[in-house]
Amino acid sequence: MAELLVVRHGQASFGADNYDKLSDLGHQQSKLAGEALRAAGWIPDRMITGTLERQKETLASMGFDGEAEEHPGLNEYDFKDILNARFRGEVPEDVRKDRRSHYQTLRDTIWEWQKAAFSGCTESWIDFSTRVEAARKFATDTDARRVLVVSSGGPIGQLVATSLDAPEPVMMTLNLQAKNTGMTKFIFNRSVFYLHEFNATPQFASADRADLLTYS
Higher pLDDT residue, 92 or 64? Predict the structure, then answer.
């Protein structure tokens, strides 16, 4: 059986004009994640990211040799676009700037998006879930034994939920648990795809690194 290790990107720049870049802490988290994998003897023989900068920066800071492939199915859903559709362009101020309100509204909005409860989104839930499945097939259609993927919380939640044949809302519950540089491992061959481990962070296991753990 081969292994697919899906790593969530490091901490991005919440509240900045350009969210799609790592913070200094995000680069540090990514470096430590790469070090933890090398210490465990886990070296990828294939690497894939989405097309987002925070995903590509994460892989670069992990420090593995070799060229990475890209697949847009690994990109996060566009929450700003989904929010604008839900609130018809009038997104409440606290949702945009307050972390607690942001994530509570994120959860509720994605659940509504899954049910097609509002219109006007650039990407539908069906489109999102279809492209994530296409990315999974792309990543596992390989002779590689250890495939490293860097993605985002939404696609990771969807991959896990699909592997467990879970109801659609479970994806969002998993999404909100996804840690920055958390590692989710699947085992696969040509006919099976199983969850082996979810959201592990061995790079933060020691007491002196506990404060490096983040979720955004």
Answer: 64
Return the structure tokens found at 47.
Answer: 């690497």
Three-state DSSP at 195 gives strand
- The pLDDT of residue 32 is 98
Summarised one tens digit per residue, pLDDT across range 91-115 is 888 777 777 888 889 899 999 999 9
Class of domain 2-76+129-212: alpha beta
> Does the pLDDT at position 14 exceed 70?
no
Tell me the average pLDDT of the chain.
Answer: 95
Tokens 């949702």 correspond to what residue?
95
What does the alpha-carbon distance between residue 41 and residue 94 come to, in Å, rounded to a whole number?
45
* Cα 7 from Cα 42, distance rounded (Å): 13
Q: What residue spans define the domains of the chain? A: 2-76+129-212, 78-122
Both tokens assigned to 162: 């699909």
Distance between CA atoms of residues 215 and 182, nearest Å: 9
Burial class (CB in 10 A: 0-12, 13-18, 19+), 123: middle
- As a whole number of angstroms, the distance between CA 189 and CA 192 comes to 5
Closest CA to 146 of 186, 182, 181: 186
- Average confidence (pLDDT) over 15-27: 82
Alpha-carbon distance of 164 to 158, in angstroms, equals 10
User: Max Cα separation, the chain?
Assistant: 50
